[in-house]
């Protein structure tokens, strides 16, 4: 099995390094400017068994090789969103140039972006819900990737898009699921993962957008208008999410557990008991991914219009996000 990881950010490295540790041949498609880089890929698990896995000399490549068994797509949302306007961009051309093997999308994706991706490659893509969350623990994208993984949150592969039993596509994906599971990242097939992914992404978006607009959690807490707008926008987004599919339990955090009397003591407690978790939230959802958040917010707003939903608070949140 030769797994190609398209994108060597935090998520791509976590899955790629853990697969390599399980004995799978792994290569990483990177931008031409990064082909000459030689630094190792190191991933460290924060919780549980606290594993540390390393690829001393990761294979960086520019094109998908002919012997690829399957692809793991771990690019930013805004890169996928660009396919909606340009079916001939660099990402589409790179994917079309490779063999027609199963493509697993680890990136959070909404229906328009998934449809544009499938149109660009001429086949179905397999939506996935990662069972890990992590960040690069430095300022230049060359450091250790720190991540959380639990047995409760399995990586989910969309059963509907995985192909019929005993097909080449299904067989390759089942091998992938076994390798990940045996390697300590539980993975299973489940129906409607694409809609689960979309609904959860929509529901959770106001939280990450507000952290970006406030340039950190403290910025949200100190800005009454931003905080109240985020909470109100979360209620609007949850209404839209219910129309798209089932929402993962963790995605309800803003509307169910965040309020004017609980957020500040909750953050203070988290900073004391789990400071790295707070750092992760600010690094992973902060201004570093500003372009991704803008693209995601605009796509969510368009989905709301298609559903006939008035979302004034989300509009206001997007104004704050653009202004930041």
Automatic annotation (TrEMBL):
* Superkingdom of the source species: Bacteria
Pfam families found in the cross-reference section: ApbA
Q: Kindly list the residue ranges recorded as spanning the membrane.
A: none
- What residues does the Ketopantoate reductase N-terminal domain cover? 4-86
**Name recorded for this polypeptide:** Oxidoreductase
Lineage of producing organism? Bacteria, Pseudomonadati, Myxococcota, Polyangia, Polyangiales
């Amino acid at each position: 099995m030769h797994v190609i990881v398209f994108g060597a950010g935090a998520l791509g490295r976590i899955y790629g390094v853990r697969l390599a540790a399980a004995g799978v041949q792994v290569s990483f498609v990177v931008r031409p400017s990064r082909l000459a880089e030689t630094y190792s890929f190191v991933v460290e698990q924060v919780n549980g068994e606290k594993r540390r896995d390393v690829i001393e000399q990761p294979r960086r490549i520019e094109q998908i090789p002919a012997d690829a068994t399957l692809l793991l797509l771990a690019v930013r949302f805004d890169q996928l969103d660009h396919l909606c306007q340009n079916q001939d961009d660099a990402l589409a051309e790179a994917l079309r140039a490779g063999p027609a093997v199963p493509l697993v999308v680890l990136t959070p994706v909404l229906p328009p972006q998934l449809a544009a991706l499938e149109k660009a490659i001429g086949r179905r893509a397999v939506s996935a819900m990662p069972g890990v969350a992590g960040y690069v623990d430095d300022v230049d994208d060359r450091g250790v990737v720190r991540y959380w993984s639990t047995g409760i949150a399995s990586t989910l592969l969309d059963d509907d898009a995985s192909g019929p039993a005993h097909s080449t596509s299904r067989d390759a994906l089942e091998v992938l699921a076994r390798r990940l599971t045996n390697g300590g990242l539980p993975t299973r097939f489940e129906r409607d993962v694409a809609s689960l992914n979309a609904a959860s992404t929509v529901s959770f978006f106001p939280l990450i957008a507000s952290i970006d607009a406030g340039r950190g959690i403290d910025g949200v807490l100190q800005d009454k208008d931003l905080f109240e707008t985020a909470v109100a926008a979360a209620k609007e987004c949850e209404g839209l999410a219910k129309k798209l599919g089932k929402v993962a339990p963790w995605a309800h955090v803003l509307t169910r557990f965040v309020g004017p009397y609980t957020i500040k003591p909750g953050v203070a407690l988290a900073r004391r008991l789990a400071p790295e978790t707070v750092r992760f939230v600010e690094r992973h959802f902060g201004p570093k991914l500003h372009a991704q958040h803008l693209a995601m917010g605009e796509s969510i707003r368009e989905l709301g219009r298609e559903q006939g939903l008035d979302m004034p608070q989300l509009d206001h949140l997007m104004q704050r996000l653009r202004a930041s």
